[in-house]
Structure formats: structure tokens, C-alpha cells
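Researcher: I'm preparing a figure for a lab meeting and need a structural model of a single chain. I don't have an experimental structure, so a prediction will have to do for now. The sequence is pasted below. Please return the structure as C-alpha cells so I can convert it later.
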Amino acid sequence: MLDAQPGELTERQQQVLDATLELLIENAANVTMIAVARKASCSKETLYKWFGDRGGLLAAAVRYQASKVKVAPFEAEGLTRDKLASILSGFASDLLSILTSDISVALNRLAIAQAHLHAGENGNGENLGSIVLQNGRFSTGPRLKVALEAGMASSLLRQHDSEDAFRSFYGLVVRDIQIRLLLGDTIALSKTDIHAEAQRATDQFFTLYGT
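Model: Understood. Here is the structure written out cell by cell.
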């Protein structure tokens, strides 16, 4: 079974995951191995070899989507306020771009619908709500916390708990945008809007925690 990180996927595997995510928009409740195989022009045998089962396929698709939220590389030694602000702003821009995409909205709506189910109750052997949490929100947090911890070590931030710092920053970035989208509100954010929102959240974060 495929155990590669998103950056280690082959082009063909990425195409399969793109097809899976597209199906989530078209008919989120009917993303089956057969449907993905047809959409991606791929054999079911290959899908089972790569992903194990539908749960493994969905987990890989969520990881792939979440991996688009980047944390810019940096050197912890000599980290400056401007560099940390650039890292945070870039992360915020990616996060908003992904969370407001049609794919993420469809994925999160389906995950919420299945959140009360235990593994196996939905007939597919997995709980998509848990998959989204573990491979989405819980996988992006640790990547940014490395930068936040470096900022604390460099006395750029007054906060001493990277998890609390991450949650505060996440809240400043997302605000009520995601829940409004999930409830059907129409929010069209241009690249300029997203950049402005990311900068606003970064400025507010430094107002709260900057030294």
C-alpha cells in the first residue's frame, strides 16, 4: 500500500488524487473505488495496491489537499521578525486559498455529515470526519508550530505555548469564513482579498504576541 508523503507522489498518483477530489465536488456521497477508477482511467487493482481501500484513498486525498498549505523554509538561527511575519502571512494565504476552494468545502461538508459515525457504520470502513481532522487540521498545525517555536526561542513572540499560538493565529486567519461557506454563504475572495486577509491576521497576531 502507498505510504508516500504528498511530496513523494508520482505524477500519476497525483492525477488519481485530483480525480478523487473532483468527484467529491460532483457527488461527494458516492466516491467509490469504482468511480475513482473510471474518473482517473485507472484500474481498481492499482487503486487497491496504492491506497489499500476507500479509507486509505480518502486519507491520501485529504493529505494531498492539506499539503498545499506551505510553510516557507527558514533558518531558526538569526530568525527576524520580518521573516517570521512573511512565513505566517504565506501560510495564512495558502490556508485561506485551500479552505475556501470548492474541493475543501465539499470535503468538509461530507466530513461533518459523517462525523457522528464510528468506523464501519457508513458501510465503507472509515469515518471521514476523523480522516479530515488527522490528515488536514492536525497535519498542518505541526508544520507551522516549528516556525512559531523558533520565533519564541528568538524572543520574537511573548507566547510560550506553540499550540496556543497556532490556535490563536488559525482563528485570526479563518474567523467565520469557513463556517459561513459550509452553511451555504457565497464568499468570493480574490487573490488580492486573500493576501489582504492574511496580512491582517499576521499583523493582529503580532499585536497580540509580538515583542
